[in-house]
Specification:
Elements: H1 10-23, H2 36-43, H3 47-59, E1 63-66, E2 70-73, E3 81-84, H4 88-92, E4 99-108, H5 113-117, E5 126-134, E6 143-150, H6 167-175, E7 181-190, H7 193-199, E8 206-215, E9 221-230, E10 234-237
Parallel strand pairs: 3-10
Antiparallel strand pairs: 1-2, 4-5, 5-6, 6-9, 7-8, 8-9
Length: 242
């Protein structure tokens, strides 16, 4: 499926420039990048733009930033996607800077295994669509997502942008339905054949599964999302300060 790229923001352009310089060996592994001030001056951008570009590279495992030691190059190409978990909002959010590829969509029968696995409410009719996310320039998907919606909200599938986004926010924008409660479940599983093919991994590969369940003000379950992350491609990271 052909996807249209969004316009490139200034920090994304700078991140691409730094990526190319690192990949070319201009900055060797273990050495420090120029300071934020130096990069801002040489590239004629703001320091805020530099910080966003560095955060982008850090999320891909290419650099490490530590106060007092500067920014150190740790890889010449993207390694993993890191997602900070410092709040409930972060746990409900989806990674930015990724590209979305829509895969399949259709009704879900109560007799389907997926219906029971997602623990859907039998009082409603459900629709499911799936997609996978990739980092720009990287072939291997970082995640595979299944979205289960009450059929009356199924049209939001058309609203999913190339860069992805939280589907519950699309439901809210189109239908005015705000989640009164969100329950997050996290577990591990070996993927079946369908999910393995979507992730380009072997059947049975270990993954992390995050299920998000959204209910409205009347307590009605209207959306379930199932996100699956294969080993070695995605890192959740949280920092606790005393």
């Amino acid at each position: 499926m052909a996807m249209h790229r969004k316009p490139q923001w200034r920090h994304q352009a700078l991140a691409e420039t730094l990526f190319q310089r690192i990949a070319a060996g201009e900055f060797a592994i273990g050495t420090a990048l120029p300071t934020e001030r130096e990069i801002a001056a040489s590239e004629k951008v703001s320091r805020a733009t530099v910080r966003e570009a560095l955060r982008f590279l850090e999320s891909r495992g290419m650099i490490r930033r530590r106060q007092g030691s500067g920014t150190i190059v740790v890889a010449r190409e993207p390694q993993q996607l890191r997602m900070p978990l410092n709040s409930l909002e972060a746990l409900l959010a989806y990674p930015v800077g990724t590209e979305t590829e829509l895969l399949t969509g259709g009704p879900v029968s109560p007799h389907d295994r997926a219906f029971a696995e997602a623990d859907l409410d039998e009082s409603g009719n459900w629709y499911c669509f799936s997609f996978r996310r990739r980092m720009p320039g990287i072939a291997a998907p970082v995640s595979y997502i299944e979205i289960y919606l009450l059929e009356e909200y199924a049209d939001v599938e058309r609203d999913v942008p190339p860069g992805g986004g939280a589907v519950f926010e699309l439901v809210e924008k189109r239908y005015g339905i705000h989640p009164a409660e969100a329950v997050v479940r996290i577990d591990a599983l070996g993927v079946d054949r369908t999910r393995a093919e979507a992730l380009d991994v072997a059947e049975g590969t270990a993954t992390v599964r995050i299920q998000r369940r959204y209910t409205d003000a009347d307590g009605r379950l209207y959306q379930v999302s199932v996100s699956i992350y294969p080993q070695d491609r995605y890192v959740f990271e949280t920092v606790i300060r005393g």
